[in-house]
User: Fold these one by one.
Assistant:
Number 1:
Amino acid sequence: MQLTKTEIDEHNKSLLVKHEHSFRFVASQIPDCEKIIRLLQEFQIAIPSWALGTGGTRFGRFAGGGEPRSLEEKIEDVGLLNTLNRASGAISLHIPWDIPKDYAAIMQLAAHYGLRFDAVNSNTFQDQPDQVYSYKFGSLQHIDKIIRKQAIEHNIGVIEQGVKLGSDSLTVWLADGSCFPGQLNFRRAFENTLDGLREIYTALPSHWKMYIEYKAFEPNFYSMSVGDWGQSYLYASKLGPKAYTLVDLGHHLPHANIEQIVSLLLMEGKLGGFHFNDSKYGDDDLTVGSINPYQLFLIFNELVEGMDTRGMNHAKDLGWMIDASHNVKDPLEDLLQSVEAILIAYTQALLVDRNALVAAQNETDVSKCQEILQQAYRTDVRSLVAEARCRSGGALQPLALFRKLNMRKSLITKRGLKTTATGL
Ligand SMILES: [Mn+2]
């Protein structure tokens, strides 16, 4: 489904007076407003191919209608998001759910929408119909060498698919672990996993990165073989300079200080990428910023501080992706909200008065430190984000336009009411 420039222009025109009033007000209070707008225009957040359909829980799934039935339609949906917000210029594929049949045609379609291929994601957390050996008791950690070999070969195959698409990173998330005490020898599981990761690492092209994603629990409930950032960091350190830790916000135990984790990983040059979502209890996979936007801001505060300290490019040097599931909301609406929440938190982090914060920290002026952070957090930066988007050709209010043009209804008319996106 295509959205025309005229439709966006008309929408922006109808909101322009109100927008300019808000924008001028906030811009007048920010010394380096133009720099922030430039950074915002560059910042792109990848959309995972599995987030475009309705997700489900262990208990059920309630389809929303008009879901993409093929990889082509998934690319079309991300293209639509990117046309609206100009900040979703990449798609992250899940293998084997989204294997292209015709690579040249898929590349051409993505280019048509101005999309690049972000990290490719392997899958050893479920068995595929044509698979010889089962991952019921793990993949890279498995006691049986032949099963480990199958998992290694799958990951190498995913790299090969990614190479054909112009991707430059592999994300490995392992469901490996144990459900009961005594089931697993932790050290042996670690060593098997490390050996497998080494073989996969060897297959990486020279410019590629490998992201090792950790998760505290689920699907295994007693131990996970990549259970926290310490374990991920250990693997990444042992593997070499192309291996990094990937932080998924929902993969921590409750109340974990994720901003501190981010800060230290950046310090060590081992933070590779990010999966955004939000949660209240566990890996809830909720819309970014819907539960705890202050935590998101604090994380971005550390990201900006850490990246600037290392002279990193905010847009390019880390992998940014949403990893969420949409059980009750329209997936495209949810993704528009998530990208907006990320851009707002990023902007607020850019507003933090770094010099004043360092001075307050050096004076151990605890109240002032809090004031400086909250001054930035409580600034309404929505019009700044909208201005950046508008200058890039996007809509001032992407969600409002998506709704006004009845885009979901058009997708349902075209694709049908009872569609299920591949992999869901
Ligand atoms: Mn994830």
Number 2:
Amino acid sequence: MAHHLYTDETPAEVKNAKGLHLVTQSTPNGKKVQIMLEELALIYGTTWTTTLINIMTNEQKKDWFLRLDPNGRIPILIDNTKNPPFPVMETSAELLYLLKFADKDDVFGFKDELERSQALQWLFFWHGSGAPYQGQLNHFGKFAKEKIPYAIERFRNETLRVYGVLEIQLSGKYSGEPRDYLAGNGKGKYSVADIGTWPWVSGWEFSGLEKKDVEQFPHLLKWIDRIAERPAVKTATGEKYQQK
Ligand SMILES: N[C@@H](CCC(=O)N[C@@H](CS)C(=O)NCC(=O)O)C(=O)O
């Protein structure tokens, strides 16, 4: 029996995809999964296909999309190697799915249970306590027609507060040992925790924050630059994912 995931309305490139397929737009959330895939491609030669949509046209609210992700938000990852195809929604779940699917050596994860727990803590921290605030700052500060000072101030303060939490971790304020990455022993290791966090925090300027606001987080600023230098990050945030 034909499965219900794809219909006549589903774009051909989505329903005819053979392996992993990503439906995305190069927003902070889209970039998380774009980065993970580009990193995996460099290490393992992982392949996938991509459909770029424009969320301003509300494509993500159409029936074909909601069948794959009832939440109606990008990005969505579909694993067509499963029968029926297996859709994954929510960026952190997508990163963790890709870790299992493609990262057999845990290059972007951890084999040690405690380090793995650390990575999950920071991944969840940003997913639950970072992105929602900075997303609302973008909404009320940039996109809302009505400018509500209380809302802008509230989400600006909360965004800076959670940046401060990242700064505590990276500076080693309480551990005595500064670190390069959010999770892992010693100086830490670049992992899904960083991949899930970086696309938002690196966009502080887009969110209307000023240099003087973020200068109080020197370790965070260095972490932003350190990750920006990665070839996979450059590809994932560049031309390749721009709508033609
Ligand atoms: N919690 C979701 C958030 C996804 C999300 O908010 N995506 C935004 C783009 S950054 C979106 O699709 N916005 C369009 C809309 O809300 O309709 C995740 O982590 O995947």
